[in-house]
Amino acid sequence: MRVVNNADGKRIMPKTFKDLYPGICAFENLYRAFRKARRGGKRKKERVAAFELDLEANLWRLHEELSTQSYGPGPYHNFYILERKLRLISAAPFRDRVVHHALCNRRDVLRRADVELEKLRLHLRLSMCSISSRDASFYTGIDSPEKRPSLPPRHKVTKDF
User: Fold this and answer.
1) Tens digits of per-residue pLDDT, 123-161?
2) How many distinct structural domains can be found in the chain?
3) What is d(CA 102, CA 140) in angstroms, rounded to the nearest whole number?
4) Which of 22, 90, 107, 159 could pair with 76 in a Cys bridge, judged by C-beta atoms 3.0 to 4.6 Å apart?
5) Is residue 4 over pLDDT 70?
């Protein structure tokens, strides 16, 4: 866990999220996750059709298992495909894919918080740059008008030629 210091040197602790788990278990989130999991040509598969046949009961069962924290992933389905070479594919059960999408649906909350933290970091970097540029003027000796390099006015330069 990274801690960010602001321009005053005070520590800014990362945001803590306490309400993510109930959002993952919410029935609406599980239904949205089911709709995402069946996309991409999987709607015609037998496992998806079996889950969809008793959709409400399956989603409520998932809701109960997630709420009581008794959910466990099922066994993977292993099979081989031949695309230029023999490959072993391990596919998760459909209900595990629904839970995966339910978790991904809640990432938007974390992503927004990460964007806010990144904006804060950028603001702090810019304020540190402005502080360091003020300090640099002291070291380079250009903080007073007498020490700044100046060119003579243009009409004086032309008169000399």
Assistant:
1) 666 666 655 555 555 545 545 555 555 555 555 555 554
2) 1
3) 57
4) 90
5) no
pLDDT single digits (tens) 93-105: 999 999 999 988 8
Burial 102-124 (b: 16+ CB within 10 A, else e): beebbeeeeeeeeeeeeeeeeee
**Residue 154 CA, distance from chain mean position:** 56
Q: Where are the alpha helices (DSSP H) in the chain?
A: 20-25, 27-37, 46-53, 55-67, 94-105, 107-140, 154-160
Q: Is 61 a domain residue?
A: yes
With beta carbons less than 8 A apart as the criterion, state whether 98 and 62 touch: yes
Residue 62 is assigned to a structural domain of this protein: yes
Terminal C-alpha separation, the chain: 67
Q: Which of 9, 15, 20 is nearest to 117 (CA)?
A: 15
